[in-house]
């Protein structure tokens, strides 16, 4: 199967603390998210996707003309009709000989982009494809989501030979309407407790078990596991249920620091887990998209990651932890302004 | 009046039954009740069905014919009954009158609610419709908030403590842990109750019943294992502020006095009871209003273990609304199903020995209506 040839991340530096939101509204609906990442006033899904993709492409020496596919998964494409991907592709200089589409499958559209790129590589249709998950996560004011949603982007260059081999991938899909946003809605709606057991837990668990039973692997075979992280409780619980220990989850569990970056959530977690990985490690990635579905990947980190890391460091390309560490905490009023919560 | 007996009961799992529909639940409970009574469906002559607000919960009013169609009972009277949280208890009341009068010989009482198809905010609004709209809910009052006021006054007047109220939830969760159909079959501690999120001071999340899906059904005939020796209803003012004393529910006092008189027994004759613990303080107040304990002593008795499984008067052996769950329309019927199982000796690990009389008390809203029923093993 195909391989991850390179990856790159981007997290905006602004943060707001859950306690600040709670102070303003007099309600504490925090779900394990201490701070959430907020895009600046000139940032959106397109700019964040571009930043992460540049970090990804700059980490390898590659003729950009060989990147023949670009897919961006997001819940916050700036336009309902007009692709984000065309702008990103022009900014990256990979047009026009390009397969390109914006994807939407709630928080798993980014991982689905990896499946599409991987399939196109495996079929021989393309040599390299770029899969991106990016979101400026929307949430209505004084909702649980306002305390949980973050922002960011993660990009993965998929090719035949790379640094992380995709040993297997699975998808698990049902019609389960737990979370939605219609065209005319500014913010998403959700089904409260329905988002848990019949939605997130069922799909993530079943998809992971489907993958592991197919491959004959179990929790102990993986160095790290990364699950979609809408809050702290869900990925922690599902990890425990599947037999993973806390130390296997910790490197890829970013939600306390940046919140739930929707389509970038599990993919940013994967970038952090890969940053911590050594050759020979296996990593499990399971995304979740409301509506609902999960994608699961069994990944094998090969020897090439050492060289990749040297090149990346020599070029001063930032890893995920550096984005998490660099932060400027905003008060509620500026956060509300940057998030477009004021009507002027 | 003719004797009225219960000859079979049926109940579904209570809980967040995401994959089960309103109509599936009532059919399942009804079929189980018929199997239990060893009667064919075509023998049913009338169906009373309790449901507090299917129009709001599942957008289905005119629920009677829908249930008739689902059960194949289109040729018999199907009557929907509503009295807030006491809907199920009132359905029993109506069915009791029906069989007692001789109009019908075999009558089914069903209760159902499907509460998890709506979001939490909408669910709160629906529950608020049981309050006095013009004097309570329009100003932001909620059912737990009204019970919180009752709790505060009870604490003030009688010295009932926060811990005593928590003991009600702890006891009921323990009982529920032994009930396979319970919504929350886990044990909890007083500390867990006291540290759970505050809903309406002094009541916390673990003081209050959950929103559940579920259904229960009974078959009433003139012959059966358990006789209904009384079934009486009374009302109080709907709004809390109109009551002389908010530490008592006049409807419970009134309906129980009539029930004891009709049954020819005293409160001290009751061996086991299912009360309406929508909030923990509710069970304490009702245990006093039913004459089990002196006014103001209900909390103390719970803490002393008098109402525990091994106490002298076990209350809510099913787990009550708190642990068994509270699909509103089904609750009053489920209470009777528990008393039936206890009186005929098939309540499993929750079984209480040597029982003669059982009592059920269903309460609507904050005490606007109540139905008290008394049962005797035959």
Q: Care to describe what's here?
A:
The complex is a heterodimer of chains A (344) and B (378). The mean pLDDT of chain A is 97. Chain A has two domains: 3-163 and 304-338, 3-Layer(aba) Sandwich (Peroxisomal Thiolase, Chain A, domain 1); 165-301, Peroxisomal Thiolase, Chain A, domain 1. Chain A starts with a strand and ends in a 6-residue tail after the last helix. A nine-stranded mixed β-sheet of chain A has the order 5-4-6-7-1-8-13-12-11, with helices on both faces. In chain A, strand 4 (67-73), helix 3 and strand 5 (99-103) form a beta-alpha-beta unit. Chain A is 36% helix and 25% strand. The relative contact order of chain A is 0.20. Chain A has helices at residues 18-25, 45-58, 84-92, 109-123, 144-148, 196-215, 233-241, 246-249, 255-258, 265-275, 304-314, 320-325, 332-338; strands spanning 3-10, 14-17, 35-38, 67-73, 99-103, 128-136, 151-159, 164-176, 179-180, 189-190, 224-227, 282-286, 291-301, 328-329. Chain B is an alpha/beta fold and 378 residues long. Chain B has a domain at 5-119 and 212-221: Thiolase/Chalcone synthase (Peroxisomal Thiolase, Chain A, domain 1). In chain B, the strands form two sheets. A nine-stranded mixed β-sheet of chain B has the order 3-2-4-7-1-8-11-10-9, with helices on both faces. In chain B, helix 1 (22-37) packs across helix 3, helix 4 packs across helix 13 (328-343) and helix 7 crosses helix 11 (298-304). Chain A binds chain B through residues 189-194, 197-198, and chain B through 16, 18-19, 116, 119-120.
